[in-house]
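# step 3/5: fold
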Amino acid sequence: MKLITCVLVDDDPLALDRMEAMVELTGRAKVIRKLSNPKNAIQEIREIQPDVVFLDVEMPGMSGFELVNLLHQHHCFPAVVFVTGYDQYAIKAIKAEAFDYLLKPVDIDELNECLTRYIKREQPDYFHGFENLSDREKEIQKLVADGKTSSEIGELLFISKNTVDTHRRNIRKKHKKNH
């Protein structure tokens, strides 16, 4: 099985190291970048196109929510998991369409549950029975399940990365309607 690619963003170096160790310990994911400056993270995440971004909420200069908004403005939509010591941001995280919300110190079982849900979401049979997906959406969903990035899918299908991201958002919306 393909490992989930992750980027960690947190202004605390110890928190970054601890989260990296936990992610690697699951055996399901690999950390491809640890970033402590949220302003620099925007460009890095756009270039890397990770599957999941584990993101602190409170950071100097820019909150995790501001970072997510800027990523979305740049048509970049990785699964976002907020990792914070504060439970009062949970509702805001839901409204920001976060994939998950983990409280520090992160529990390994909760992290495993998060990654399991992510894997299930990305499996091709996860959308079985969704007759309302267009042929193009089904094609894109299969390529996502094969581990292709939006950029790679765009090249294979001769469409822009932004068009692929739009299809992926539509697939998620249709999935949410059916669950």
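# step 4/5: annotate
The helical segments are 13-26, 38-48, 64-73, 90-95, 108-122, 135-145, 150-157, 161-177.
# step 5/5: archive (pending)
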